[in-house]
Amino acid sequence: MAKLTLCSDWLDVCSGCHMSLLDIDEVLVALLDSVQLLSTPITDLKHPPEEGADIGILTGAVSNDHQEAVAKRMRERVKILISMGDCSVFGGICAMRNFFDAEQVLQYAYTETDSTAPGQQVPRSPEIAKLYPKVRPLRDVVKVDYYIPGCPPSANTIAYVLTELVAGREPKWTDELLRYG
Amino acid sequence: MPDVHVTIDGTEIAVPSGSTVLEAARIAGIEVDTLCDHPAIEPIGACRICLVEVEKQRALQPACTFPVSDGMVVHTRSEKVVGARKFVLQLLFSERNHFCMFCQMSGSCELQNLAYKYELDHWQFNRPMPTYAVDASREYFVMDHNRCILCRRCIRVCDELVGNGTLGLKNRGADAVIIADLDVPFGESSCISCGTCLQVCPTGALMDRASAYMGASDQVERVKSRCMGCPVGCGTELVVRDGQVIRVEGDWDAEPNKGLLCVVGRFDPQHEVRERVRKPLVRQGDAWSIADGEAAYGLVAEKVAAAGDSVATVASGFVTLEEAQALGSAVRGRKFYMYDLPQTDRTATMADLDEADLFIVTEMDLSLDFQVAGMAVKRGVRKRGARLILVGEGENGLADWASMRVGRADLAKVIAMAKSAERPVVVSGPAGLAAAREIVSAVPAASLASFAPGGNGRGLCDAGFGQTYAGDAAKVTVVVAGETSQVEPGLLDALKKQEFVVVVASYREPWDQVADVILPMPTAFEKSGTTVCADGQAGQVVAAMSTRVPTLEATIGMVAEAIR
Amino acid sequence: MGQKITIDPVTRVEGHARVTIQLDDSNQVSQTYLHIDQFRGFEKFSEGRLFFEMPSITPRICGICPVSHHLASAKACDVVAGVEPPRPATLLRQMLHMGQIVQSHALHFFHLASPDLLFGFDADPAIRNVAGLVQVNPDLALKAIRLRKYGQEVIRHLSGRKIHMNWAVPGGVSAPLSEASRDAILGDVEEMIGIAQAGISVAKEWLGANQDVVQRFANFPSMYMGMTNQGALELYDGPVRLIDAQGNQVVEFDGADYLDHVQERTEDWTYLKFPYYKAMGWPEGVYRVAPLARLNIADHITTPLANEELKSFKALAEGPVQATLYYHYARLIEALYGLEQIQVLCHDEDILSEDIRNTRTHITGHGVGVIEAPRGTLWHDYHTDENGVITRVNLIVATGNNNWAMSNAVDMVAKEFVKGSDVTEGMLNRVEAAIRAYDPCLSCSTHAVGQMPLIVEVTDANGERLERFVRN
Predict the structure, then answer these.
(1) Do residue A151 and residue C449 have CB atoms under 8 angstroms apart?
(2) Which residues from chain B sit within 8 angstroms of residue A96, using beta carbons?
(3) A20: closest chain C residue by CA
(4) Mean of the per-residue pLDDT values for chain C?
(5) Beta carbons within 10 angstroms of residue C166's beta carbon
(6) Which end of chain A is more exposed for a tag (fewer CB within 10 A), N or C?
(7) What are chain B's domains?
(8) Could A44 and C453 be called an inter-chain contact, meaning their C-beta atoms sit closer than 8 Å?
């Protein structure tokens, strides 16, 4: 039987969700019997292939234009999209910036902190992403098929959901697996 | 009235008329999920989590407030109900700002637990993310409005149980916000830091400063014990993480407090700033040095042996019956209680306070001392329409509840009013006893609820320590202080005049002003024993922490050993 | 203006990073830029929260080294709360830190760096990764996984979680170490020391056999900053020292006084600021941090095996060791030190103590916490009001200190290896290797499995695409 193909990427993140994915250790090896990893931040491929993939995992909130583009491209190219981690599912810690004006946050960081030299400016080059006024969860920009909250979700939870999906079963939340924070 | 017959989830059952659907379900052994409900207070149907299907009703009904009627058929877990509950949870999460990842309540949160139970793995609605303040003006705990679900348990306990009525609500609907008094910072309000609201808050809105992040509910144990701070004798639940008491809560099942505590029992022990004594300390001039056991116990033994009968032993309110017995067998000379004695003509109990229609409090401020008794007075005034007369001059924290304040000279007026009451109760401390007795002797229906300082005063009086210490001259004075913090200045003055003072204490202060030797003593969290409250009930203090500090019995043993 | 080469993405930085290489009219590299592409705003959005929440908020800055932030935050909170933790709590926090040093450094060297060293920069990308390592050297690959797991387990034994824990609190920690956990940690440490030493052998062998590359590859003099305790390598607590390119001390200061010594500059083309030594100004005041810097500053290590390796390291150069690729060796020496230090801590008489929190607090209104994160000196600086509500935050996050160095390294490697618009795969890999050597925070394990296609576009001055090179 042909292996399922899996891609993942990260948006506005700390990378803890991908580290937790790595913490599934030997389960990953077992999964690799039925899953081929394509583009992920923890492999060398960077973009889901144009011919598409079976499963996509996105972590992180959507906070700027580059991230939205990555999210949309992933959604286009995968059959099943998983929103993983509190930031992706809820907005998470990244959404804390929503209580402030985005420009205010930028000005503080780049011109007002105690260690910033006088006369500095907020970076505005077209080479770097433009911040959106508000940080949003993934489901606000693309349709999501499955959610795995957690900050990060535990390795057990990640292993469970992936194993179920790969086996063609619907994951069911049971005690201990569904956790926020 | 005859019982009512209802069917809940297919189970037929008879329940008392006037029961709510929730009460009926519990009688049938069926738990209906709730959030704003709490057994100690009246239900208000605020959260809508307990919505159930009642046949023939047009809409789902809140089980906590909906009264049963004969022949009612109820479904508590139908598809419609489960869907409604999920919907309510979605609304609750989307209304304000719930960031579980850094909330110290995560893992112990009733809202979160319901979300897990109903398998909410994402939130459906766009969140407006309104900005809410964090009010950190209180000393012991903090209010984060972002996490508040407006269950109003805090308002209700402050009103119904504590009788303080500090908390309220301003604005309406989505703009509603919990406020204190007329919307002042909580730390500047009439809040008395009893912490009852903190204890009942189902989310992380109210955060205890001392125990924040110290352990979620699956990481802690709970030990039922008794507070020894005063003779009210509140039942406590000590929350323990890996051998440390991280928080003190009131035991809802315990008499006489039924879950209430005051700042003295709940917060003071967790905010102790004095230096803990774990090894014997010996004075050398103005300095103190940590002595090894032999030197310290040897010194005490030498003095005690030489003193013969000229020994005065003073027990504080923190001494248990068992400790008192050990002391009694070991010491010679005279035995004293540190404070004024509990009185034998006490005829009213804490339960009587909850029946009174008139309170007369003589020369005592129940907002400072015996505060849980003060709460009974306040809630009587607030909820039952009982009246309060304060006898005495000066500031009094219960003045706002009093319908009358009179001076000591105006007792006749008070007596006249008391005679027209059905169940008048006179409450006094040592200072107001004379006035209290005058009233009680003139008013046949009046009973006396007198309080003397110290948790186990009654027990100690019965155990041979039935004399108030007044600076009895002795060659050796032994003060068994435990964690006592409040002492009359007179006591320290009297002790300063004594020849040789040994204090067995948990903390160094204030004893380093007067002692020659300080020996360590376990706190009430670290020992087990019996304490007798003002009502005369024996309660069990249970050790929630182990310690290497020797028990009083062991200390006595070591001194005895050194004497030999 | 000549052509621009864009490398998108660069892997292993927080969020997304890109490199643009500007060519002049004669197709020589004139300027290279490392654009860090993410910004979240922790310093601002923490305002209004309680100071004691910061050890829970700030680890979310990074999921690879949350422990660094957790501990730096707790140390800052200690000062805000006017309280010093009891000795056992400090020991426990140190052990958490050592667990992190081990797992983070292991992850980086074995999963990321070693494939380049074992297969070569120009090797087929299909095998130049951990999967290839498993095939060619399964023994080493298995050891690598076990070493990272060990570090994570130390963290879990102490704090209950591997990533984003609630454990350190103002005044101490919330739970002691159980005897069973201490025994489990101690039980495996010898084996782990062996693995670290195996890694060191791999590194030394490669570095010794490839001196021509090592000396040409982003080899530049710089100042160095890091903690030291009277000349000993120090990662948890100690004064911060700055030395010059000759190895002479420029200044040593209490981390709490960092504002007198460190200042930050912005550039329009990246979200990551550039810290530098204030007294010398920009750009004279630039410096490097993290393992290479810390070992250049230290003259000894308190644990014996790591100290022996330090001597070998010092012998590589007269004065400070400057060549970027020696970061890999320095990183492993620190991992070895971390393991030995875990052993030392396990044997301390206070390590099982239950005296783990000093609760006598009063709000002072300000606190700075400093620590040596795996990737460099990390500062957390909090101001609060009298109730402990955060009013102002400043963070200087480890990798940021190396921002100039990474930019410089990328520029040097591009200038050394990029010839005209004849882009080769090996060149791309070398540019990445230059960044990779600094282990920038968020080191995702690229090269774990599979290959790394990069899309490189060569555009003309009008932005028209001339060539598109896809490495698959």
Answers:
(1) no
(2) 99
(3) C163
(4) 89
(5) 27
(6) N
(7) 4-77 (3.10.20.740), 108-219 (3.30.70.20), 281-341+457-563 (3.40.50.740), 350-450 (3.40.228.10)
(8) yes
**Interface chains of chain B (3 or more CB pairs under 8 Å):** A, C
Strand partners for B206: B143
Pairing of strands B51-54, B61-62: antiparallel
Q: How far apart are CA A136 and CA A141, in angstroms?
A: 8
Look at residue C444 and tell me whether its pLDDT is greater than 50.
no
b/e sequence C32-61, b meaning 16+ C-beta within 10 Å? bbbbbbbbbbbbbbbbbbbbbbbbbbbbbb
Domain parsing of chain A, residue ranges: 4-94+135-166
- Which pLDDT belongs to residue B298? 94
In tens, the pLDDT along A8-40 reads: 999 999 999 999 998 887 777 778 788 888 887
Contact B261, B236 (CB under 8 A): yes
What is the spatial distance between Cα B226 and Cα B539, in angstroms, rounded to a whole number?
7
Distance from CA of C55 to the nearest CA of B (A): 9
Of C164, C174, C360, the CB nearest to B214: C174
Between A99, A147, A181, which is nearest B129 by CB? A99
Span C287-300, pLDDT tens digits: 999 999 999 999 99
- pLDDT surpassing 50 at residue C443: no
Interface test with A, best of C4, C7, C14, C16 (most A CBs within 10 A): C16
pLDDT at C460 over 70: no
Query: CA angle B478-B479-B482, nearest 5°?
Result: 140
Omega of the bond leading into C9 within 30 degrees of 0 (cis): yes
Query: What domains can be seen in chain C, in order of their start residue?
Result: 4-38+411-470 (no CATH), 41-82+363-396 (no CATH), 85-219+323-355 (1.10.645.10)
Please say whether the beta carbons of C315 and C68 come within 8 A.
no
> CA-CA distance, B4 to B16, in Å (whole number)?
6
ipTM given for this complex: 0.96
Residue percentage of chain C with pLDDT more than 70 = 89
Average pLDDT over residues C217-233: 96
First CA to last CA distance, chain B: 74
Chain B: give the shortest CA distance to residue A112, in Å.
23
Determine contact, residues C96/C90, Cβ cutoff 8 Å.
no
Dist CA C272 CA A108 (whole Å) = 14
Tokens of B471: 């600076």
Q: Read off φ and ψ for residue C79, nearest 5 degrees.
A: -70, -40
Neighbouring C-beta atoms of residue B180, cutoff 10 Å? 22
The phi and psi torsions of B501 (rounded to 5 degrees) equal: -115, 125
Would the pLDDT of C465 be above 70?
A: no
> What subunits touch chain C, counting only 3 or more CB pairs under 8 A?
A, B
Low-confidence residues of chain B, pLDDT below 70? Answer: none
Q: Read off the pLDDT of residues A40-61 as tens digits, 9 standing for 90 and up.
A: 776 656 689 999 999 999 999 9
Q: What's the token pair of residue B163? A: 């009788």
CATH level 2 (architecture), domain A4-94+135-166? 3-Layer(aba) Sandwich (3.40)
> What is the predicted pLDDT for the residue at A38?
83
A94 in contact with B, Cβ within 8 Å: no
- Identify the CA nearest to C35 among candidates C20, C22, C46, C48: C20
CA distances from C389 to B106, B553, C369 (A): 20, 46, 17
pLDDT over 70 (residue A173) = yes
Q: Omega before A152 cis (within 30°)?
A: yes
Measure the CA–CA gap between B229 and B250, rounded to whole angstroms. 13
Give yes or no for a contact between B524 and B500, defined as CB atoms under 8 angstroms apart: no
pLDDT of residue C442: 43
